[in-house]
Design a protein that fits this description.
The complex is a heterodimer. Chain A is built from six helices and 15 strands. By secondary structure, chain A is of the alpha/beta class. In chain A, α2 crosses α5 and α3 crosses α4. The longest helix of chain A has 16 residues. The longest helix of chain B is centred in the N-terminal third of the chain and has 15 residues. In chain B, the strands form four sheets. A seven-stranded parallel β-sheet of chain B has the order 7-11-6-1-4-5-12, sandwiched between helices. A five-stranded parallel β-sheet of chain B has the order 15-14-16-17-18, covered by helices on one side. Classes of the chains: A alpha/beta, B alpha/beta. β14 of chain A pairs antiparallel with β10 of chain B. Bound molecules: flavin-adenine dinucleotide (FAD) (2 copies). One flavin-adenine dinucleotide binds next to α5 and β17 of chain B. Chain B: InterPro entries: DHS-like_NAD/FAD-binding_dom, ETF_a/b_N, ETF_a/FixB, ETF_alpha_N, ETF_asu_C, Rossmann-like_a/b/a_fold. Chain B: Its cofactor is FAD. Chain B: Belongs to the ETF alpha-subunit/FixB family.
């Protein structure tokens, strides 16, 4: 059984500021780390690997060459190999163009039974890449899985928490799954696994290694454009006074909360 | 020439409409003015009448697609149905709630249509017919405006409770549309059960009853516990209350405790020290009850009552019953 976990590298902290002169994001001095939610996806894959002896876990990331650090970290956790998709042509991709390159790479890797994603990247926070890849590969998707187990030879059963409903879903493999962080606690790399990770294969694919339609890549292949980046204004609130006896005031509050659909 | 269509994809929560849908219909009407035709797209079973929960909000049209498989349809099946509707109606823009469901279906549709999707938006406006969507990123520390100039439809998911739903008098035309339901046999929803309150900590709760030194008696805490249960939420406390046996640091809100942004927080007997406020001032709706009219907590509150915390709480709880 082959599992591919897609991972992203993100800035170490979300405390980013806007450069007052250029109005661009000031990311100077921010080290990259693996998107924390992706560690839950890796942990799930490793858990499945621990439970059977035929499981191979590969990691896949699209990004600049330093994203290799996150691949190494994932291999130190226990993944077997890593794929880095790196090319200037991929830069500036929105979720659609990112999903396209990842899907093309997954086709080249071939025969993955389970493709895992984190819940979302903590920087851009869209959670869109998983479903996009699932669509491009024409596979069933289970998003925001709160639990997942193999329930047959070729089948997984997952729980998914919607706002106020818990669903149980059963998917035939191959399938795409994105996981919630409550699912598990990611393991730390052990010194031995760190040592071992340096001998694990890390494959880099550039533009020409993949079968790609150039109009769908990078900034040019991205339908969305970020036109402005700014620091949010603190929320200005207007105080509505509740008055009268406690009972009268409570009744005013109930009306107000109903108006806001909170009760 | 007919007006361009602005769609809101209606979402169901078990047997009801998810409130974000109604909020988005109100917002869509404001955005559309008389330039666009607002359509609520609704997928339901043949015997359902969820449109009755949409009419009051006055979209120009409620377009219903009926099939008994919709209530348990999977993301890809709904996205496929939407794609068929998009192909036949060519909407200008489509809005989804940024709920788990909306955030799962919308990107699947985005990939089918190869268009742009802006996630989890906090504001929307049109510049001519370009949708300008404001989205937060880096944990809400940064805002950005995103457009999708060359592809249609333009799509966005919008954070729940960002806009307020307002009932109107305008009558909605109800129409029906047909699509071919393409079942995806490889994925099945086996069960769907309601969950009442999944929050295990004050950090995950979407409703919080916060107690401070002015609401610290055992009876008040008991009343607050019942109130939190009714709201489907949790109790959180200011630092002085962590000295009580019933609370720990895990329950504390503030600079040296949890930073929370629930959709609703009710603050009882809390003065509003800056170390407390930094932990909760991004909550969506803030209510404060304090006997001191000058308590700083009122500066960040949407609703405030000057008076006794315990008396107000008791009155509120009894009116819930
Ligand atoms: C401030 C800002 C706002 C943005 N807003 C939008 C927007 O609204 N719409 C839009 O289309 N694009 C947006 N983008 C572009 C988007 O960040 C990139 O397309 C990014 O490559 C993937 O999207 P994401 O970070 O949201 O990942 P998500 O979709 O949140 O990531 C989900 C999962 O997909 C996997 N994954 C994500 N990226 C990669 C990768 N590069 N390699 C391998 N696996 C990966 C991981 O498992 C991750 O947990 C924005 C970018 C910025 C900087
Ligand atoms: C480094 C540092 C970190 C800190 N971190 C935190 C933190 O993370 N979280 C935190 O909460 N605090 C923190 N504090 C403490 C903080 O400064 C305040 O002391 C604390 O928040 C006060 O809690 P309170 O509002 O419950 O109590 P008080 O300030 O004593 O306020 C009690 C309020 O109750 C009102 N009241 C009294 N009786 C009634 C009644 N019957 N009905 C209605 N109202 C009534 C009073 O008018 C008053 O406004 C920190 C302090 C420091 C120095």
């Amino acid at each position: 059984m082959k599992i591919v976990v897609c991972i992203k590298q993100v800035p170490e902290t979300n405390d980013v500021t806007i450069d007052p002169v250029t109005h661009n994001l000031d990311r100077r001095g921010l080290a990259g780390v693996m998107n924390p939610f992706d560690k839950n996806a890796i942990e799930l894959a490793l858990d499945l690997k621990d439970s059977r002896d035929d499981v191979q876990v590969a990691l896949l990331t699209m990004g600049p060459d330093d994203y290799a650090e996150s691949l190494r970290e994932g291999m130190a956790m226990g993944a077997d190999e890593g794929y880095l998709l790196s090319d200037r042509a991929f830069a500036g991709a929105d979720t659609l163009a990112t999903g396209y390159v990842i899907a093309q790479a997954l086709k080249k890797i071939g025969d993955a039974d389970l493709i895992l994603f984190g819940r979302q990247a903590v920087d851009a926070d869209t959670g869109q890449v998983g479903p996009i890849v699932a669509e491009f590969l024409q596979q069933p998707q289970i998003t925001y899985a709160a639990s997942l187990r193999l329930s047959g030879d070729n089948e997984v059963t997952a729980e998914r928490l919607l706002e106020d409903t818990k669903q149980t879903l059963v998917a035939q493999l191959p399938a795409v799954v994105s996981v919630r962080s409550e699912l598990n606690t990611p393991r730390y790399p052990t010194p031995r696994n760190i040592q071992l990770s340096f001998d694990k294969p890390l494959t880099t694919w550039h533009h020409d290694d993949l079968d790609l339609d150039d109009t769908r890549l990078g900034q040019a292949g991205s339908p969305t454009i970020v036109t402005k980046v700014y620091a949010p204004e603190p929320v200005k609130r207007e105080l509505t006074k509740l008055d009268g006896t406690p009972a009268e005031a409570a009744s005013q509050l109930i009306t107000a909360l109903k108006g806001r659909q909170l009760i | 020439m007919s007006k361009p269509e602005l769609w809101v994809v209606a979402e169901r929560r078990l047997d009801h409409i998810e409130p974000t849908t109604q909020q988005l219909i109100t917002k869509a009407k404001h955005l559309a003015g008389d330039q666009m035709h607002t359509v609520a797209v609704l997928f339901e079973a043949t015997t359902d009448h969820l449109e009755d929960e949409l009419k009051a909000y006055g979209p120009d049209e409620i377009r219903i697609v009926k099939d008994d498989r919709f209530p348990t349809a999977t993301d890809a099946e709904i996205a496929d149905a939407l794609q068929q509707l998009v192909t036949s109606n060519e909407p200008n823009s489509i809005l989804f709630g940024a709920t788990i469901t909306g955030r799962s279906i919308a990107p699947r549709l985005q990939a089918k249509l190869q268009t742009g999707l802006t996630a989890d938006c906090l504001d929307l406006r049109f510049d001519d017919d370009t949708l300008v969507a404001t989205k937060p990123s880096y944990g809400d520390n940064i805002m950005c405006e995103i457009i999708c100039p060359d592809h249609r439809p333009q799509m966005a998911t919008v954070r729940p409770n960002t806009f307020v739903a307002e009932p109107t008098d305008g009558a909605a035309t109800v129409t029906t549309a047909t699509i071919t339901f393409h079942p995806v046999k490889r994925l099945q929803v086996k069960t769907a059960t309601p969950v009442v309150n999944t929050a295990t900590t004050v950090g995950d709760a979407s409703r919080v009853v916060a107690l401070g030194r002015g609401a610290a008696s055992a009876t008040t805490i008991n009343t607050a516990t019942k109130l939190a249960e009714k709201l489907g939420g949790r109790i959180g406390v200011s630092r002085p209350l962590t000295d009580q046996e019933r609370f720990t640091h895990d329950d504390q809100i503030g600079q040296s405790g949890n930073t929370i942004h629930p959709e609703l927080i009710l603050n009882f007997g809390i003065s509003g020290a800056v170390q407390f406020l930094v932990g909760m001032q991004d909550s969506q709706t803030i209510v404060a009850v304090n006997s001191d009219p000058d308590a700083p907590i009122f500066d960040v509150a949407d609703y405030g009552y000057v008076g006794d915390a315990s008396a107000f709480m008791t009155a509120l709880l009894s009116q819930f019953n």
